[in-house]
Design brief:
The chain is an alpha+beta fold and 129 residues long. It is built from three helices and seven strands, in the order βαβββββααβ. A five-stranded antiparallel sheet has the order 2-3-4-5-6. The chain has a two-stranded antiparallel sheet with strand order 1-7. Strand 3 and strand 4 form a beta hairpin. The N and C termini lie close together (10 Å).
Length: 129
């Protein structure tokens, strides 16, 4: 059973919709506070815009890249949960669905926070797996 939710962009979503939501969330003081900028090549080579915010702990960040062609966006290639202390992907997060030994309390907190943040975005919807 997967504990990490899977997501897709809602049909018709534009990069302007994404930016507007980040601005709205800041204006309405909806946490977590996040950054929307051009760039994101640390997420992957095709990211031209990105969102970045803390994911449950000050040392773990959630980074969402957006390619030029949003129809190619997917939650595996375009999302990076990053361990900021060592500057690399937070592997226990990615292994938690396949390896029960990776489901210790800290990573479960990260997964829960990730799911809540991703669920809160109006431009995303859960995939039916």
């Amino acid at each position: 059973m997967a504990i990490i939710n899977r997501y897709k962009l809602r049909d018709g979503t534009t990069i302007e919709d994404v930016e507007a939501e980040v601005i709205r969330r800041r204006t309405e003081k909806i946490k977590p506070h996040m950054l929307f900028c051009k760039g994101g090549t640390w997420i992957n080579d095709r990211a031209v815009h990105f969102i970045s915010c803390w994911c449950g702990d000050e040392d773990i960040s959630l980074n969402i890249g957006f390619p030029e062609d949003l129809s190619t966006w997917d939650d595996f290639d375009d999302v990076l949960v990053l361990d900021e202390d060592v500057g690399q992907a937070y592997y226990p997060f990615y292994d938690a669905d396949e390896n029960e030994k990776e489901r210790f309390p800290f990573v479960l907190n990260i997964i829960g926070t990730y799911n809540r943040i991703m669920d809160s975005f109006e431009f995303l919807e859960r995939k039916q797996c």
